[in-house]
């Protein structure tokens, strides 16, 4: 069975969990305790890769790390090439490049929010920061989405990534009402709907973020 290893939080693993759920793959969500003992003292030493990190994915003899690479492995393994912007038969499509561009832009957006919100003054300045730093990216994404349902037209992994980014933004900016139809669309994908209703631990995200961030 596929194993996805990560800390006991959403973090970099959450969009990958959504992808696994979407693919209806049986997987074990291996969650490491935040004290790090099991990961650093044992599993990190024993993982059969030169690049041990969290998240990791184990599929039989194959070990994959790096959060942007794991979804590419999964899409190729399950021959769902369109989930990474390729044609259905896995051949090249310019969307593959746009896919990577958007993934990189979304990662920057997420990382910038993450670092901004660790500074105490964030609490007072967050609206100004939103207008100065984040809005421009949201405008670009809005343009990319246009009248389409998903960022590349058809559903792809970056939609799961963007959905998670939006959820994080909603934590810091509860009154933010952008991409609401888009969020609903993702949440209504049957596999995702089922996951959100049955497995997702909604409380955990908030509790952990409360202790690390200013909001
Ligand atoms: N570039 C890596 C970064 C992974 C990373 O920074 N992982 C953090 C959690 S988000 C970690 O605690 N890794 C465990 C370790 O350093 O051993 C990725 O995108 O997967």
Automatic annotation (TrEMBL):
Enzyme class, UniProt record, top EC level: transferase
Xref: Gene3D superfamilies: 1.20.1050.10, Glutaredoxin
An MF annotation (GO) of this entry: glutathione transferase activity
GST N-terminal domain segment(s): 1-82
Coiled coil: none
InterPro entries per record: Glutathione-S-Trfase_C_sf, Glutathione_S-Trfase, Glutathione_S-Trfase_N, GST_C, GST_superfamily, Thioredoxin-like_sf
Catalytic activity: RX + glutathione = an S-substituted glutathione + a halide anion + H(+)
UniProt EC number: 2.5.1.18
Entry keywords, A to Z: Transferase
PROSITE patterns: GST_NTER
GO BP field: glutathione metabolic process
Record's function text: Conjugation of reduced glutathione to a wide number of exogenous and endogenous hydrophobic electrophiles.
Membership in a protein family: Belongs to the GST superfamily. Mu family.
Protein name per UniProt: glutathione transferase
């Amino acid at each position: 069975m596929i194993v996805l290893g990560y800390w006991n939080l959403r973090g970099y693993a959450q969009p990958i969990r959504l992808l696994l759920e979407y693919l209806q793959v049986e997987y074990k969500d291996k969650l490491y305790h935040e004290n790090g003992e099991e990961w650093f003292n044992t599993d990190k030493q024993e993982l059969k890769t030169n690049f041990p990190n969290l998240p990791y994915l184990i599929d039989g003899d194959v070990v994959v790390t790096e959060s942007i690479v794991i979804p590419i492995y999964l899409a190729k393994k399950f021959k769902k090439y369109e989930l990474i912007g390729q044609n259905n038969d896995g051949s090249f499509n310019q969307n593959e490049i746009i896919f990577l561009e958007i993934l990189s832009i979304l990662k920057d957006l997420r990382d910038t929010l993450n670092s901004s919100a660790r500074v105490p003054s964030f609490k007072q300045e967050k609206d100004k920061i939103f207008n100065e730093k984040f809005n421009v990216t949201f405008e670009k994404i809005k343009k990319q989405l246009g009248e389409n349902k998903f960022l590349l037209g058809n559903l792809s992994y970056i939609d799961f990534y963007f959905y998670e980014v939006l959820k994080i933004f909603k934590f810091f900016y509860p009154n933010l009402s952008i991409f609401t139809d888009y969020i609903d669309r993702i949440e209504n994908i049957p596999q995702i709907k089922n996951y959100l209703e049955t497995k997702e631990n909604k409380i955990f995200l908030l509790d952990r973020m409360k202790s690390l961030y200013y909001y």
